[in-house]
């Protein structure tokens, strides 16, 4: 598996859906795989990418493997998105001021 960064991992919609499924808490691999119209090996490959990038951790419990969301790598995404959020906030504020202004 080639090296992949957080952005590359998030580029795939299946991996984003896996992360969304883990927001409410850890789930076993079988339950995660059951949520997709993909083979278990395909879901396993996506989980491996998420593990490699640190977005999930794996916990063995008996015969099952539970996956946990590890959100700290998402800080890199937040830091990258922050200037864009500020850009849009400024432009939407300017639009609001224009619409609500007395100039109309």
Automatic annotation (TrEMBL):
What SUPFAM superfamilies does UniProt report for this protein, alphabetically? Winged helix' DNA-binding domain
Q: Does the keyword Transcription apply?
A: yes
Q: Where's the HTH arsR-type domain?
A: 1-92
Instruction: Give the transmembrane ranges.
Output: none
PROSITE patterns on file: HTH_ARSR_2
Keyword Transcription regulation belongs to the record: yes
Where does the signal sequence lie?
none
Name the Gene Ontology molecular function terms of this record: DNA binding; DNA-binding transcription factor activity
Matching InterPro entries: ArsR-like_HTH, HTH_ArsR_DNA-bd_dom, HTH_MetalResp_TranReg, WH-like_DNA-bd_sf, WH_DNA-bd_sf
Q: Which Pfam families match?
A: HTH_20 (PF12840)
The record's keywords, sorted A to Z, are: DNA-binding, Transcription, Transcription regulation
Protein name as catalogued: Transcriptional regulator
């Amino acid at each position: 598996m080639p090296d992949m960064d957080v952005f590359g991992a998030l580029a795939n919609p299946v991996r984003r859906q896996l992360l969304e499924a883990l927001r409410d808490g850890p789930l076993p691999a079988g339950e995660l795989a059951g949520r997709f119209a993909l083979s278990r090996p395909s879901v396993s490959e996506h989980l491996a990418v998420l593990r490699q990038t640190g977005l999930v951790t794996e916990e063995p419990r008996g015969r099952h493997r539970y996956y946990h969301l590890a959100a700290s790598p998402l800080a890199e995404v937040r830091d990258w998105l922050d200037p864009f959020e500020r850009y849009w906030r400024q432009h939407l504020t300017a639009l609001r001021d224009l619409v609500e202004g007395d100039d109309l």
